[in-house]
Design brief:
Helix content: over 70%
Number of strands: 2
Number of helices: 24
Oligomer: single chain
Shape: globular
Strand order of the largest sheet: 1-2
Largest sheet: 2 strands, antiparallel
Length: about 575
Amino acid sequence: MVAGELVQEHTRAESTGAPDAVGTITGGKAAHELRSGPLVPIDKLDQYTVLESGDEAVNLLKALNSLASEQEIPPDEREAMLPKGGGVGGEEENAKKENKCLETKLYWRRFGVLAIFSLYSLVNSFQWIQYSIITNVFCAYYGVSSSQVDWLSIVYMVAYIPLIFPATWLLDKKGLKLTALMGAGLNCLGAWVKCASVSRDLFGVTMFAQVICSLAQVFILGLPSRIASVWFGPKEVSTACATAVLGNQLGTAIGFLLPPVLVPNTSGDFELMGHNIKVMFYGTAIIASVLFILTVIIFKDRPEMPPSYAQAVLPDSPPEDYSYKQSIVNLFQNKAFLLLLVSYGIMTGSFYSVSTLLNQMIMACYESQELNAGRIGLTLVVAGMVGSIICGLWLDYTKTYKMTTLAVYILSFLGMVIFTFTLDLKNIYLVFFTAGVLGFFMTGYLPLGFEFGVEITYPESEGTSSGLLNAFAQIFGIIFTLIQGQLTTAYNPLVGNLFLCAWIFLGILLTALIKSELKRNNVNMAAEGKQPLPTGCPVEVSTAEMTTATKLKNSISFSHETSV
């Protein structure tokens, strides 16, 4: 018997025939009004009504409470009476489960993972550019044309395009550590094969070694955003991504600086030239080996506890019904991401083309300036590194992804125009300055594209979105390098650079059309109480019934960044 039934029986027993007294208790200022006064529904009865009803009402309530406590409610009936989760205790248990699901923690190990990745990414990008910056030296040593040496750089872009899909599948299915080991291991192997190619008739061997290094790049370029998301908190994720990209840029900078110093143009003395090349190759191989060993020791797939709420609401590993193919389809159905793919490809492809052909452009305008060509390349990339860090910090502080990306794109266009029209003014120091301005914005754009892509495609895999961005960058890089190289050779560097300016201007228009939805950022904001969180852990629902993207979309209203 429940409390309402006890009230009903008591009122019937003492009532003077009032049929409407069922389930209620009378109240008034005197004891006799208890039976004849106005009716008060039991759910409206409170301590103030009791105080007004006098001692008899108090005694009545005590009696009802005593009777109710003596009646034992069957377990099944008790469960049916309680809300889902088991009443107060169930709510507490659900709260504990939800808190456990959304519990976050940052680990010091994240800095080791970031540092090791940045360093072996540095070595890989160094091996990409080490041939192009001293094209004339390798042409003389191996007896090949400049276009053949250009292919030592282009092969990085060619290899990436078909292999990005198995590489991102490996990252999604097998995790971060195995993918990192593949990148560091192939990078080390390629460096040692180069050591065996130091002979004037072994250009094919050095090309094979460069192909191995290009395979390593496939397992490297897509990791910055994954490492940042999996290991770093919401207030440092953009800076971490920028730092990871920074390693690759620093390798390019060192690739511009060291090869002209280590392998100077010793025309006619091929023995000395070969010795210098061997020193550069062996030094690279030893460093790559040490970094591979450190990768084995330091890297883990993910920390024991997630670093952010955006990671906490995602599964620890892909569910059994996870479809990599469906993830790709989802990304290509995202109109904002498609616009970003093309605009990112244009900007990054332009940077690849300028980096590859910089030596030829400088040598066409300034004779015997191999060393300064390398220094100009260094200036280009170092300025870009500063730009990357500043942009990363700015994003962590403001979360204005579209506005920042568009502003940097416009400034990159202006920098390219200035570099184009000041290159042939016979003032090498002016070229240093304009190259620095160009690099600050053009190279600084790279991590912006990664982070913007993760935001508008969340909760799809960061590795998949970053991999597709890099694939389009390689496609545009190949096209731009081949066309700009032909224009530079057939006409002059001005024509080739104007070709890039036109494409970068198109990239500005495409970037302006991107609809900005900061999905990942909104999940973290919701966890901080600024928006409602999902009511449960998404991992409890099968993706066959509801994809993670749909769940998050239905449980959180994503805000749109203010458009420019």
